[in-house]
Amino acid sequence: MVGFQPVDVPPTAAVKFVGAGTAACIADLLTFPLDTAKVRLQVQGEASISEAMGKVPAVKYRGVFGTIVTMVRTEGPLSLYSGLAAGLQRQMSFASVRIGLYDSVKQFYTKGSDHVGIGSRLLAGCTTGGMAVALAQPTDVVKVRFQAQARSNEYARRYCGTIDAYKTIAKEEGIRGLWKGTGPNIARNAIVNCTELVTYDFIKDFLLTSTPLSDNLPCHFVSAFGAGLCTTVIASPVDVVKTRYMNSTLGQYSSVLNCAAAMMAKEGPLAFYKGFTPSFLRLGSWNVVMFVTYEQLKRGLMAANHSRTFLHPHS
Fold this sequence. Notes:
By secondary structure, the chain is mainly α. Among the domains are: about 10-80 and about 290-305, no CATH class; about 85-165, no CATH class. Helix content is about 70%, strand content about 0%. It has 12 helices and no strands. It is globular. It starts with 12 loop residues before the first helix and ends with a helix.
């Protein structure tokens, strides 16, 4: 079997924390164009920034691959990675908490018991998801703003760089602007975390106890893919509202609920599933890369630490 084999010593909280952030960054690097296409499709249909400034409406996108092709043709290939710096900053602070601390928080709620019920898993997912949003929300706001803005020379870009984005948002919208959309993002990540981690947990447990699969790559792949599909179906409506609200200009929406109501009134219920295909392609592939990498990193880091301890027991 390719990859590190299971180790006898369970990974420490620090190993899980670092491993989760690193694995999430690797997954982001590989799937970022799909995420950018998803954001462009989600914000399409609302009053665009260009229209708000009295300029020509933005380019219309059709489908995930059509969006990617249009972006490459009109803005260049680098546009697919617009906001990558903020995205990686987000994952190192965000995934480290929501995924890396999940097992520790789950053990806290069960008081170290071997029997872990659905309630404890859901509570742990909600807790780490909320903690992660509170910490990393500014990076998410900047990432979404960069992904949503067109890089065509016809339109003035909102921000020149990541640092400029943080400064401009804080200056024009106040510090609260960096935490814009925290409410829907907490709701989204409570849903995402619970669905993603709990589904991965359950599918993995089922495969290990009811099928010939062992705790290795095929098991991790199937579990991650299933978790990605379930998460996309359940979390898409909240994700679209979150993206629209975080990308909105000052005063465009009076609240998150106003944003959702405006979408329903102007575009109908299907608007809440805009960008579903890229969302699934992105979240499915992201989950596979992240969880497989995470499982391997945990084992690799623990194996390296065990070898070092074995070679230098008194260091």
